[in-house]
Write a structure and sequence with these properties.
With 154 residues, the protein is an alpha+beta fold. It is built from one helix and eleven strands; from the N terminus they run αβββββββββββ. 21% of the residues lie in helices and 38% in strands. It is elongated and about 95 Å long.
């Protein structure tokens, strides 16, 4: 009986080691081929010169960056408005309406961002004031680096 018990224990341990090894290989393969974006430090892209920003008027511009998710790579282009807040810090707002993603345009006469698709209006800070949008324009992280305004790639 001792020999049978020992053989059973060895077979169980060997089977467990094989199953654990296969599980580890599966996890490594899943991690290597995952399409979920890897967590990494924020990356910033130069957007415009700081002296290009005028008080009270947003600058219409865009930026592009490469996004990599697993094996999938794409070139992403973001359309944005850049302006200064009351303290002189840069503010970057998306040019896409939060209702259905239509482009918004700055109207200097009314000092609003207007969406032509469904009549949405946003104030100069990007907050909704009329129409169907319920949430403000998306604000992107920005910083000043020397004479340049940089925006986070998201």
């Amino acid at each position: 009986m001792l020999r049978r018990g020992l053989l059973g224990l060895v077979a169980t341990l060997l089977g467990g080691a094989i199953a654990g090894g296969l599980g580890l290989l599966g996890a490594l393969f899943a991690k290597a081929t995952s399409r979920w974006p890897a967590r990494h430090a924020a990356r910033f892209t130069a957007l415009c010169r700081l002296d290009a920003l005028q008080d009270g008027a947003p600058l219409e511009t865009s930026f592009s960056f490469d996004r990599v998710e697993g094996w999938y790579r794409e070139r992403v282009k973001r359309l944005v408005y850049v302006m200064k807040d009351a303290q002189g810090a840069p503010v970057v707002l998306s040019r896409s309406c939060t209702h259905l993603g239509c482009p918004v345009r700055w109207k200097p006469k009314t000092t609003t961002f207007d969406c032509a698709c469904h009549g949405g209006k946003f104030d100069a800070e990007g907050a909704p004031i009329a129409g169907p949008p319920k949430s403000p324009l998306r604000r992107l992280n920005a910083r000043i680096a020397g004479e340049m305004v940089e925006v986070e790639e998201t």
